[in-house]
C-alpha cells in the first residue's frame, strides 16, 4: 500500500473504533467510572498495570481493585492506614498479587505526596521526543520507598529495551484528547505528539502485515520503528492509530 492509501485505510479504522462503544469491552471503562482527575489517573494506572491476559478477567479484577479502594482511589491512597491494606490479602491477577498491590498503594502515596502526582512524575523532563527516559525515571521514583524486589517487574523499563506496553497505554488514555469520549486528555502538561503506541502481539502483527514495522520482537527498538511510521502518517496524534491496529487485530482478525 502506498502512503496515501495506507493513511486513508487506517484513518477509516480509527473512526470505526475510536468511539464510545469501544469503552464497553476495554479496561478504559475503569477510569471512566470517576470524575475527579486524581481518581481517573489512579484508576487508569492500576487498570493498565494488570492489562495482560484475558480482557474479561482484566476488567473484573480492575473493578475488584476499585472496590478495595472504597471506590475512592485518591482519598484511599493519601489517607490509608497500614491495617486498611489487610483486605487486599486475597487479591491476585496472574503474577500481580496482594504484595504487589499493597506496594503500588504505598508507592502511589509517595508519588502524590512527594512528586506532585502521576502527571508530574511521568512528564518528559529532557529534550527527547518520546517517553523512554521519562518512564525509566518514573520507575526510579516509584520504588524510592521500601519495597520487595518482586514488585519491580510490574513497572517496565524502556532503557532495558521493554516496549512498556501498559504504561504507554496508560499515557495514551491520559494525554491524548480524542474528542470522542474514549481517551481523557486530562494531562495538559504532556504532548500527544510524543506518545508511543502500546505495542503488543496484536498491534505488532498487524503493523508487520501492513509493512510499517519490520522488527520481529515487540521491544523498545520495534516501538521506535513503529513511532517513526505512525508519526509519518500523523505527526500530531500518532497513537490514534493504536485503535486501528488493535481493532484490526482483535475484532477483524486481520
Largest β sheet strand count, sense and barrel closure: 2 strands, antiparallel
Radius of gyration: 18 Å
Taking pLDDT < 50 over at least 5 consecutive residues as the criterion, the unreliable ranges are none
What is the N-to-C order of secondary-structure elements (H for helix, E for strand)? HHHHEEHHHHHHH
Number of helices: 11
What is the arithmetic mean of pLDDT?
A: 97
Given the helix and strand composition, which structural class is it? Answer: mainly alpha
- Count of DSSP strands: 2
- Compute the separation of the termini in Å: 15 Å
Q: What sort of overall outline do the alpha carbons produce when their principal axes are compared?
A: globular
Helix content: 40-55%
Order of adjacent strands in the largest pleated sheet: 1-2
Strand content: under 5%
Amino acid at each position: 500500500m502506498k502512503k496515501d492509501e495506507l493513511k486513508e485505510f487506517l484513518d477509516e479504522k480509527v473512526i470505526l473504533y475510536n468511539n464510545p462503544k469501544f469503552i464497553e469491552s476495554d479496561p478504559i471503562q475503569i477510569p471512566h467510572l470517576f470524575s475527579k482527575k486524581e481518581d481517573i489517573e489512579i484508576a487508569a494506572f492500576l487498570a493498565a498495570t494488570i492489562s495482560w491476559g484475558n480482557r474479561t478477567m482484566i476488567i473484573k479484577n480492575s473493578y475488584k481493585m476499585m472496590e478495595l479502594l472504597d471506590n475512592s482511589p485518591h482519598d484511599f491512597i493519601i489517607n490509608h492506614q497500614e491495617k486498611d491494606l489487610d483486605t487486599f490479602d486475597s487479591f491476585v491477577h496472574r503474577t500481580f498479587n496482594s504484595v504487589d498491590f499493597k506496594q503500588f498503594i504505598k508507592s502511589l502515596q509517595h508519588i502524590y505526596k512527594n512528586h506532585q502526582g502521576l502527571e508530574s512524575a511521568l512528564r518528559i523532563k529532557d529534550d527527547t521526543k518520546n517517553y523512554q527516559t521519562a518512564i525509566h525515571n518514573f520507575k526510579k521514583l516509584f520504588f524510592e520507598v521500601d519495597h520487595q524486589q518482586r514488585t519491580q517487574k510490574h513497572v517496565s523499563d524502556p532503557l532495558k529495551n521493554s516496549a512498556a506496553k501498559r504504561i504507554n497505554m496508560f499515557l495514551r488514555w491520559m494525554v491524548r484528547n480524542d474528542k470522542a469520549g474514549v481517551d481523557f486528555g486530562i494531562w495538559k502538561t504532556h504532548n500527544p505528539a510524543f506518545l508511543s503506541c502500546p505495542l503488543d502481539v496484536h498491534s505488532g502483527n498487524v503493523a508487520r502485515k501492513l509493512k510499517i514495522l519490520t522488527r520481529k520482537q515487540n521491544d523498545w527498538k520495534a516501538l521506535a520503528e513503529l513511532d517513526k511510521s505512525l508519526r509519518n502518517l500523523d505527526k500530531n496524534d500518532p497513537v490514534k492509530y493504536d485503535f486501528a491496529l488493535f481493532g484490526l487485530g482483535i475484532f477483524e482478525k486481520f
